[in-house]
Amino acid sequence: MSPSHAxxxxxxxRYYVSQAVLQNxxxxxxxxxxxxxxxxxxxxxxxxxxxxxxxxxxxxxxxALHIARIVLRPRHIEVxxxxxDPASHQLAEAGxxxxxxxxxxxxxxxxxxxxxxxxxxxPVGAKARKGIAxxxxxxxxxxxxxxxxxxxxxxRARCWMDDLVEGRVRSFQxxxxxxxxxxxxxxxxxxxxxxxxxxVEAIENGTAHAGLTVTSLARALPHSxxxxxxxxxxx
Length: 235
Prior knowledge:
By secondary structure, the chain is of the alpha+beta class. Helix content is 40%, strand content 15%. It contains eleven helices and six strands. It has helices spanning 19-22, 37-52, 59-66, 100-103, 126-130, 144-165, 172-179, 183-189, 197-205, 214-218, 225-231; strands at residues 2-8, 11-17, 34-36, 67-72, 76-81, 115-120.
């Protein structure tokens, strides 16, 4: 799969798209032809960080050091991990907006004792994203990986806003440089710092909707806590 994007009303949406689709060979494409890049990246980074720790590493460096290959399946993501290679740390500076997450195959020959990390995942279709973001689904709840991904994003957003308020950083641009992200990504997730306590509790307890992702949570988040909870069907 290759990184791609679409611009709609001034907003850039990033995807990973099957090479077969890009080359007009749709009949030869696998079961997953396109996936939201932020959704996949958040899950993968959270799972790998949980596996290896490394709190001092940026997401980009973490991926470069530990991931050899990522395969998307209809119900899960398969991540081939390898032992850290000091030389691969330099790959963190390459690529555009997490391109290394999916495309870097150069380190495969140096991997040591690779193992497979399986992450539960259900792709969300484009139509579902344009319509109602969340609705009750028969008692389904968050799995541990999705819960940790959401809580990590919320904690980061709170740290960013605390740093801004207390003067440890001067701008979102400075935060983006520290995190190894684009400024738009930081601005997009920053509102999670002001998430309703009821929603945070539902995420911590695993009772939030199973389809909840960092991307869908941050999108058009209302300022009112009551409106936030109404949007996410959390009482």
